[in-house]
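User: Teach me something about this protein's shape.
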Amino acid sequence: MTSTIGRLAGVPADLLETLRLLPSIADNTAAMAEATAVLPEVQASLASALEVLERMDRRMGNIEAAMPVLVEVQGHLARVPETPTRLDANITVLSGALTQLLETLGALDAHVDKLQGSIDPLSRVVARLPGGGSRD
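Assistant: First, the predicted structure itself:
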């Protein structure tokens, strides 16, 4: 029936069908305009996110540059448990040596006391001799 009306009015039926689609096209165009209206906000948000990523990239570059030093430090830290163990062993040896030194000093003190005791009578004799009391 549409084709009959179209022929009667002198308008082709395809044109009438296309004209009926115009309101739908207008609605869809308005919806697209609303959707694209937020694009500047999306662009600003993406630019802000890009700045954050650039800062993160610089920081990661700094971390990457520091990695050789960190690996070296890690190697030193791995040896830290060995150091106190070696120190403990050396302190044990040193403690034994100090104990022996104290014993030796005690024995030396006893010998010095004996020598002093044996020299005292001799010093009294020397003091009685002429010129023996003075050390000029």
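Now, about its shape. The helical segments are 2-9, 13-37, 39-79, 82-128. The longest helix spans residues 82-128. If you'd like, I can walk through any region in more detail.
User: That's plenty for now, thanks!
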